[in-house]
Amino acid sequence: MIAQRVGLSAFRRGAAIRPNVSFTQNVPRLAVASSLSTSAPSRGEPSPIHSNAAVATEKLTPDQEETILAAQRKLRPISPHLQIYRPEQTWFGASIWTRITGSALAGALYGYSIVYLASPLLGWHIESSALVEAFAGLGAFSKGAIKSVIAWPFVYHLFNGIRHLTYDMTWGFSKPVISKVATAITASSTVIALALGFLW
């Protein structure tokens, strides 16, 4: 109740004094007066919400505001530093590789599309027939390696997407399962990408 009482009356007074200044400058810094009571009103007393009692405010300089803000930040709970986590679990785990592969696939699509649209203006030949002709001139190992590198993000993103769907069903959150599934996804994605590259 006090917060409502102090906040609304201070906001109204600040807006009435300087209506053309930005919002943060309209709201004065408040100091709760000692005369305000936190107890419930007795019979016959008006409710604190509807009271028009004066509110004590304090004008602060920007330096004082920064000092108060810095003191308040010291009282906030602190999250543990990243150094307490094992890097393979949080930095480059299966979850972040899903985002990396998705971004790589989207970036490659957009990049190729832009270059393809600009190629007639620049005199480049990257139409499908030119790419097929250039790819046909490569050796068998080079073809397989290029196709495997292109296939791996697709396969990995697909399998990891399925893993995230199992998370949505609240399955597989224990640490041993997370580790085993991440290893299985990486291994199976690599094997299937190599198979797609060299056998198809």
Automatic annotation (TrEMBL):
Record's keyword annotation contains Transmembrane helix: yes
Keywords, alphabetical: Heme, Iron, Membrane, Metal-binding, Transmembrane, Transmembrane helix
Residue intervals passing through the bilayer: 96-118, 130-156, 177-199
Compartment list: Membrane
InterPro entries: SQR/QFR_C/D (IPR034804), Succ_DH_cytb556 (IPR014314), SuccDH_FuR_B_TM-su (IPR000701)
Pfam families: Sdh_cyt
SUPFAM superfamilies listed in its UniProt record: Fumarate reductase respiratory complex transmembrane subunits
GO biological process: mitochondrial electron transport, succinate to ubiquinone; tricarboxylic acid cycle
Recorded GO MF terms: electron transfer activity; metal ion binding
Keyword Ribonucleoprotein: no
GO cellular component: membrane; mitochondrion
NCBIfam families cross-referenced by the UniProt entry: succ_dehyd_cytB (TIGR02970)
Record's protein name: Succinate dehydrogenase cytochrome b560 subunit
The organism's taxonomic lineage, starting at the top: Eukaryota, Fungi, Dikarya, Ascomycota, Pezizomycotina
